[in-house]
Amino acid sequence: MTALHRSQQQQVLVLGGGLMGLAVAHGLARHGGSVRLLRRARRDAAGFAAAGMAAPHAESLGGSLLALAQRSLRMIPAWVGAIEEDSGLPCGWLPCGTVVPFTSEAQRQAFPTAAAGRPLERADLEAEVPGISPAFTCGLLFPQDGQLDSRRQLMAALEQACRRRGVLFEEEVTVERLCWEEDGSGRKHLVGITRRTSDGKRLWLPCGQAVLCCGAWSHKLIPQVPVAPIKGQMFSVQAPRQALRRVLFGPGAYLVPRQDGLVVVGATSEQVGFTPGLTPMGQTRLERSLRELLPAATRWPPMERWYGFRPCTRDQQPVLGPGPLAGLVMATGHHRNGVLLAAVTAELTRAVLDSGAAGLPNIPWATPFLHAFRWNRFSPASAQDSVRQD
Ligand SMILES: Cc1cc2nc3c(=O)[nH]c(=O)nc-3n(C[C@H](O)[C@H](O)[C@H](O)COP(=O)(O)OP(=O)(O)OC[C@H]3O[C@@H](n4cnc5c(N)ncnc54)[C@H](O)[C@@H]3O)c2cc1C
């Protein structure tokens, strides 16, 4: 089924309107699809908390996840171009490269993605990151890595691009249940959802196609897909412009310099469920890591502090492609790399929806990823049985 054919036949519901929901909705709408996006709360999306690094090499990704991430990284310039064209707003894409510093040569050699980086000796490290602590004797530069200003620019640009492409937004609605019917062969098909509005009304919405993009909250709708929240706290400081030109990916903290001199410092990684708020311990730990990495940065004035919840699966890899119900596509569990993976997730999701009843797109590049990131890799036996049903 082509995108045009699909759009004439049925609307796609995008469940959740954080980074993935917006990226998927935009990708579909830009190719002629009819899309309705439902989200509970705009500001609780991790997309508004992310540092925005697009840094698969500094993040030491491996296997299929590295391949997916490298593909997404290559797609980002064109993807950003499309969003900026549709929205008229910048996304803050900066192919600034990432520096990973080490305290010994042995550490550098053991770094999983070392082969993709350019070795830096102490003098090179100082040239790349003026003022870096003398504890760091060498490093790796990954010039291919970059960053997007997800918090201040990308999310707003995606929202505007979606609106201009005709995506319908339903705000402050919680999707409560996915509803299905079984066909003669025992296969379960999505037939609709129920949603609760902010004034407590419970409403039914029929649909044959939906994309699950509920981030850290996804398990509430699909309990057999183990997505849990990992809280991340951050803060920002205002540096002189160009004081830092590369992302600095240190052992206890990373620094992400925006073009206007704002430097985002992150991030804690806490298994505390959805406990809200900043903590003195989390913030102090980040400040100490900053001091140990780049002592001069402690003199830069503090700006903002915030936190968000990363959607993390048991193997810390995303869940993509056809879901437990026919008609339901998964786009969740992106954990620390959702900004990096948004471009390829939007593309992959559109390919799956375009493949229609066949279930899997006939695109050679997509097939290995759909296998690696399938929803039922965690507990194949439980298959369709625990989708919440009215
Ligand atoms: C501190 C921090 C730093 C990060 N840094 C980076 C980084 O440098 N690089 C990178 O690539 N990634 C980074 N990430 C990860 C990235 O932000 C996430 O992977 C990504 O935002 C996940 O997108 P999502 O759409 O799945 O979830 P979210 O952006 O969290 O959006 C989920 C949305 O779904 C809505 N929702 C949930 N349940 C329902 C429901 N039942 N009904 C309706 N709506 C619902 C929520 O209200 C929310 O708006 C970071 C994350 C954090 C928290």
From TrEMBL:
Record-level GO cellular component terms: cytoplasm
Listed transmembrane segments: 12-29
Protein name: Amino acid oxidase
InterPro entries the UniProt entry points to: FAD-dep_OxRdtase (IPR006076), FAD/NAD-bd_sf (IPR036188)
Occurrences of domain FAD dependent oxidoreductase (ranges): 12-349
GO MF terms held by the record: oxidoreductase activity
Domain of life: Bacteria
Keyword terms of this UniProt record: Membrane, Oxidoreductase, Transmembrane, Transmembrane helix
PANTHER family in the cross-refs: GLYCINE OXIDASE, SARCOSINE DEHYDROGENASE-RELATED
Native organism taxonomy: Bacteria, Bacillati, Cyanobacteriota, Cyanophyceae, Synechococcales
Source organism of this protein record: Candidatus Synechococcus spongiarum LMB bulk15M
Keyword Transmembrane helix among UniProt keywords: yes
Gene3D superfamilies documented for this protein: D-Amino Acid Oxidase, subunit A, domain 2, FAD/NAD(P)-binding domain
